[in-house]
Amino acid sequence: MQKADPGILLLRHTSGAKATIHLHGGHVTSWISANGCEQLYLSPLAVFDGKTAIRGGIPIIFPQFGIGSIAKHGFARNQLWRILGTSESESSVELVLTENAATQAIWPHCFDLRLKVVLGPNELLLTLSAKNTGTAPWSFTAALHPYFATEDASKCVVTGLQGLPYTDTASPEASHELPTAPAEIPFGTEVDCIYHEAEARTTRLGGLSVSQTGFPDLTVWNPGPEVAAGIKDVPQPNGWRQFICIEPSLWKTPAKLAPGEEWTGLATLAAN
Ligand code: TA6
User: Fold this and answer.
1) Contact 93, 86 (CB under 8 A)
2) Which of 25, 129, 248, 261 could make a disulfide contact with 215, Cβ separation 3.0–4.6 Å?
3) What is the Cα 232 distance to its own chain's centre?
4) How far is the CA of 171 from the centre of ligand 1 (A)?
């Protein structure tokens, strides 16, 4: 492990694989697999001011996924995390975020949120764990929000989710019965769908795959040209083509933790 800058960590694997992690947000901003290919999208307009969420890479979403009672996607992606430990032999780093005055002002709970990143030749293993260190129970939702790099999203499909019920947050259904996923999910207009009962599935995008344990949902997002036009840190007119997000998520049924209890979610990102 190398520190490129006080706030940036560089993980290296003997295979040549590399990952860059910003302490702001506990945010992986680059993952280069052993073949030298960058697997993640990082917007050239991403803001690195220590306050704004970084557009691209792998934002960490906690304690609220999406819209709810606090700011969208919670605060973990806007906070400065600390290094808990590193291992050269395992090519890993573990980061932690605990409550502080700013998080207490938004969400009045005590927590210990940890992210472990393990780099392999062609894999990135991410373990997110949340512990209730307070004296009262609390509930939360969470996600890992990877932006995978694509040359042109309109020519890509996501597979592996066929038959799963999903919530389409881009065009919510009036019916109580949820639609089920097709064999291939195409892109070109906004896709913002949360697939349920996805824990046993492996989701694929070209040579990339995502599998997860502990995250019961899986979100697929690409803004398409119209929604992207309203996102200031996505380049116009074609930035939307350059990524597809595949997000191990905990959303439909929030997790509730009693004092001392812990939840863990694990995701494996693999590049073939
Ligand atoms: O996870 C999908 C999503 O919730 C979309 O609705 C989309 O807005 C995206 O996240 C990015 O959100 P952000 O707050 O980073 O602009």
Assistant:
1) yes
2) 248
3) 20
4) 14
